[in-house]
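Before we proceed, please read the two lines closing this message. Report back on whether the structure tokens fit the sequence:
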Amino acid sequence: MIPAVGTLAPNFTLPDQDAVSHTLSIHRGARVLLYFYPKDDTPGCTKQACMLRDAMPELSKLDAIVLGISADSVKSHKKFAEKYGLPFTLLADEEKEVSKAYGVWGIKKMMGKEYEGITRTSFLIGRDGTIEKVFENVKAEKHADDVLAYLQEHA
């Protein structure tokens, strides 16, 4: 089940693309865009990551930190981040514990087949550590614009 707006964001510690551990709660005082995506270096995920990369100057001005999470490995994240020059942290949730805690791991359908995976969902976590906004059914090509629009409106 997806955590509700206004509730404390589930805390976690995961390794990034450089195998450095990150704990969500250390970012209190800043807004955090926690975006879950299905897989490194696939068309939709690449488009989403590159659009967020290109929006980083504006996101930074709005005091937003970006953390991407997928079930891919640290090594996969490293290759993905280097290939596309991603200036934000990618976290490896290989055990899927964080994805499950945020309610984004489950059954998906594509071309008539069912499989388990991450549903493209993002959480804007407020400065106080509570969930400020949930972006569900995210469209990769529009996500950065949608986040920027929300942040500008709620600065």
